C-alpha cells in the first residue's frame, strides 16, 4: 500500500497500521514513540497535507479530531465520528534524531446489514457509559416471541468469556419481561487496563462495544470533581 511506504523508521511500526471502522463511529489511530525519551509528535493528513495535531495541541477546525496520550510512549489520534471522506493515509511524525515517520491507513466502512429473518426473531443492542469510576454496559435482547423465556446471554471481552465470579471487578444484574432481557454489567474501578472489545451474545445475534478509557481526560475530570470519561465504538454484527 502506497500509504505505508511513506514510513521512515529504523524499526517496524509497533502500532496497528490499517484501521477499519464503521461510519458514524469513533476511530483511534495509535503512534508509539521510544519509551526512554520525551518526543513531540505531530499528526498530518496526507490527502491535503493538513496538520491535525502537534504534541497535545489540535490545529484543525474540525472538532471531531483530538489527540491524547494513552501511556508514556503511546499517542492516540481520536476521530469522534468517522465519515467516508475521512478514509485515507495519516502520518505520525516523531521529533527524534532520525525524524521517524509512521503511517496509518484509515478505512471507513459501510454499516453491515443484518438479514431480515434474524431481525424478525431477535435483536441485540449493547450500550456503554461511565458512572463515576465504573463502566456500565447495558445489553438488551428483544424477541418477537413474548413467551420466549429461553434467552441466555454470554458476555465476552476480546473473545474471552468474562468471569462474573470476580465480583471485585464485575457486577451483573438481569431483568426479564415479556420477551425482553436487559443485562447490566458494571466494570468496577475502571482503568486503561480494562480497554477492550466487549460483547454480549445470544443465539446468532451479537452486539459489541470497543471501550477505550482516556487516561488524560479522566485525570482532568477527576481533578475538577467530575466523572471520568470514556470513548466507545458500537458495532452490530451477526455470527
Automatic annotation (TrEMBL):
Pfam entry (one): V-set
InterPro entries assigned: Ig-like_dom (IPR007110), Ig-like_dom_sf (IPR036179), Ig-like_fold (IPR013783), Ig_sub (IPR003599), Ig_sub2 (IPR003598), Ig_V-set (IPR013106), Immunoglobulin_dom (IPR013151), Zig-8 (IPR037448)
Gene Ontology biological process terms, A to Z: synapse organization
Domain Ig-like: 14-102, 114-211
Superkingdom to which the source organism belongs: Eukaryota
Any one Gene Ontology cellular component term annotated for this protein: neuron projection membrane
Protein name: Ig-like domain-containing protein
Species assigned in the record: Caenorhabditis tropicalis
